[in-house]
Design goal:
With 335 residues, the chain is an alpha/beta fold. The chain has a domain of 123 residues: 3-Layer(aba) Sandwich (Rossmann fold). The chain contains 15 helices and eight strands. The strands form two sheets. Strands 2-1-3-4 form a four-stranded parallel sheet. A four-stranded parallel sheet has the order 6-5-7-8, with helices on both faces. Helix 3 packs across helix 4 and helix 7 runs antiparallel to helix 8. The protein is globular. The mean pLDDT is 96. The chain binds iron/sulfur cluster. The site of iron/sulfur cluster has 9 residues, from helix 4.
Length: 335
């Protein structure tokens, strides 16, 4: 299976049907022991300081790992990817463009999938068989999510890690399935902490994930909803690939995302929302809409190229959690 880099969640079933292994370049970047080095590679190649760290990290990974083929999403992800794609092309990397339709329409999605399958020399029918093979992994990811918010047996960090990894199943779905089965059986033996503050995390995954979730846990708050990470696992698989990727909210209007977010905030009894925005990302403008439409208390935090939480962010998070705890107090006291 030849590795193909991906810049975001894409229909990996088609890549697999064509004999490729998807490698999510974001995950390789952020789990590298020295991500600054990868960003440095991009900046020395001329990427500006005010370009998003994820884009520079992806480019750095391509150079560092000598990735020779990358599937780039040109509609439904990031406007910077278009220029990243051109630079990769200049460097001799084979780039395969993929565009999500601008609306979550099953018929148009089917056409997009057929076009991608045609470029890769396979068929959507072959990819549907792969979809069936991946179903147990997606089902386990759903169980992990339920154990997080229904029973408080899985931490927000574990939830983040396993859901964010479902974009490529760490390049080895069978291993992912075995490891996740094992984790879930361990989690079911854990005592339930209960009574903790319940938070939702919305927005793109953070560059300082490990530190953020650890800090929130330490403050006594449980992240019971990771919005985009959950979407990567395809929580509504539908009856076909075209349905599955039409139900996936991230590539479409922010109002599609809001429907999902609002429903999950209610269902999961969320006390407060953390909206993460990446410096220099166009999606940060969506904060205006989230702040206007989400009625649950919301804190916006921004990350750039710090891979740990700065003291400034720690103070903001601490104050937010303190405020939420105070507003819960009268209810708990019954006053
Ligand atoms: S964080 Fe924003 S700018 Fe950066 S890669 Fe993602 S969508 Fe693009």
């Amino acid at each position: 299976m030849k590795p193909v880099g991906i810049t975001t969640t894409v229909p990996i079933e088609i890549l697999q049907a064509a004999g490729h292994t998807a490698v999510d370049l974001n995950n390789v970047f952020v789990t590298d022991p020295n991500p600054e080095r990868l960003v440095g590679l991009a900046e020395r190649s001329g990427f500006p300081l005010n370009c998003c760290t994820w884009i520079k990290g992806i480019y750095g990974v391509c150079l560092d790992r000598k990735i020779d083929t990358v599937l780039c999403v040109t509609t439904g992800d990031c406007s910077n990817t278009i220029m990243l794609m051109e630079v990769l092309r200049l460097k001799g990397v084979r780039v395969i463009p993929f565009a999500y339709p601008d609306q979550p329409d099953v018929g148009r999605m089917q056409e997009c999938l057929e076009s991608l399958a045609g470029q890769l020399g396979t068929t959507v029918a072959a990819a549907e068989a792969v979809r069936n093979d991946l179903a147990p992994c997606r089902e386990l990811a759903g169980q992990l999510d339920e154990l997080t918010w229904k029973e408080d047996l899985v931490s927000g960090w574990e939830n983040h890690l396993w859901l964010v990894s479902s974009s490529d199943f760490n390049g080895n779905p069978q291993q992912y399935q075995r490891d996740l089965e094992q984790l879930l059986s361990q989690c079911r033996q854990r005592p339930t902490p209960g009574g903790r503050l319940r938070l939702a995390y919305i927005g793109v995954p953070p560059v300082f994930a490990r530190d953020l979730y650890r800090f929130l846990e330490w403050q006594g708050a449980a992240v019971v909803f990771n919005e985009v990470q959950r979407q990567f696992a395809m929580p509504r698989p539908g009856h076909s690939l075209a349905e599955q990727y039409s139900h996936y909210t991230y590539p479409y209007s922010i109002f599609n995302r809001l429907e999902d977010i609002s429903a999950e905030i209610r269902r999961r009894r969320v006390d407060g929302v953390i909206h993460y925005v990446q410096a220099f990302c166009h999606r940060a403008i969506g904060d205006i809409i989230f702040r206007s439409m989400i009625k649950t208390p919301i804190l916006t935090i921004e990350g750039n190229a710090d891979y740990v939480l700065t003291p400034h962010l720690q103070t903001k998070l601490e104050a937010f959690i303190d405020m939420l705890n105070r507003s819960r107090q009268p209810l708990q006291d019954g006053t």
